[in-house]
Amino acid sequence: MDPTQVATATVPAPVSALTLGVVGLGYVGLPTALAFVAAGGRVVGYDVSDARRAAIARGEVDLLSRDLDRLATLDGDDRLVLTGDPTQLATADAVVVCVPTPVDEHLTPDLTALRAASAVVVEQARPGQLLVLTSTTYVGTTRDLLEAPLRARGLEPGVDVFVAFSPERIDPANENFPVEATPRVVGGLTPACTRRAVDVLGRMAPRMHEVSSPEAAEMTKLHENTFRAVNLAYVNEIADVCQRLGLDVAEVVGAAATKPFGFMPFTPGPGVGGHCIPCDPHYLLWQLRADRTDAPLVEATMKAIAARPGRVVQRARDVLAEAGRPLAGARVLVLGVAYKPGVADVRESPALEIIERLRRGGAAVSFTDQHVDRVRVAGAQLTSVDAPWRTAWDLVVVHTLHADVDTHWLAHAGAVLDATYRLAGVDCERV
């Protein structure tokens, strides 16, 4: 390789001259692309889904209001190019991979999308490029999916190309912490790789925190989300304890949160959903099992999280029984099916399992959610009820409380089971 190419590649370009390739335009990739354009750069957004690219072009995507405004201003603007052609990634100065890393029905990591995306990036890599994985995954992924294949192509990381891992930290619907307000962790294969990643990613982050290796950065994300999983499982257990003792868990958590040190409040709920908490710790457990290493606390946490929807259904049975009504034949409404308030995302939502279990028990189950029109549960497609107050329900299970949801009618809805612990002004049961 011509040494002048390498020397030129290590000199950071002004952001206005930088083109970022974004592989995967989902809940991470699209906000990342919009943040980079807002910082003055240009983006080539690559996604294999024609439907997803078309939805983005129409502006029919689930984003923060600020990002929706940004997207609208880019209609027809070449600062954001949407493509299904992987060869266009070769025009980018840096490429970030932002694809899903779910688990399958056996809770085994599904690396299909990440392997495919990494193979495309390696195939299109050119001298001087920066390649960054952001998807949450097992420790060692960056070396396995980028470093080794790049070396096989004759590209030396830190010399010919620059490779790093920098975990995404996007919290959908959280207006307080968009991409630009959240610090990033980055670990490169070499110091030069880290410096290059810091230069590029630092243009759309308030602070960059360097770690010694991609493995340290990969483990950082697993630790962050496993920490949340442990605390969510714990607070759900405390909620059960408080119920047995006749206490209000919200009052207890609120009182504990007045301590200015050594405590972080978590809120109980119907379970844990979304793309991170129900999945990410399994990447760690999967890797540890392969090494015959135990993590008993994490294992117990994930078992407790998996069991929580069943606990909600059992409590629903109890509430109905107290009213002299069996579950079989009961008319049950699930209020909110998105995995969290403010989003239209039902991935890993506990509501889906709750609905399925209720239906299996013979209940006639409907749902209402102003952000979600339809859901498919066990092969059946359900459509959101527009005016739930017009129907007489035997039980309403409150699963997700969006900020703009009207709950006044619940005061006259009969039996209400609040699985969110956030419903106010309504006489209700708790899980």
Automatic annotation (TrEMBL):
Keywords: NAD, Oxidoreductase. Residues 333-425 form the UDP-glucose/GDP-mannose dehydrogenase C-terminal domain. The keyword Repeat does not apply. One of its GO terms (molecular function) is NAD binding. InterPro entries: 6-PGluconate_DH-like_C_sf, NAD(P)-bd_dom_sf, UDP-Glc/GDP-Man, UDP-Glc/GDP-Man_DH_C, UDP-Glc/GDP-Man_DH_C_sf, UDP-Glc/GDP-Man_DH_dimer, UDP-Glc/GDP-Man_DH_N, UDP_ManNAc/GlcNAc_DH. One of its GO terms (biological process) is polysaccharide biosynthetic process. Gene3D superfamilies: NAD(P)-binding Rossmann-like Domain. This is Nucleotide sugar dehydrogenase. It comes from Nocardioides caeni.
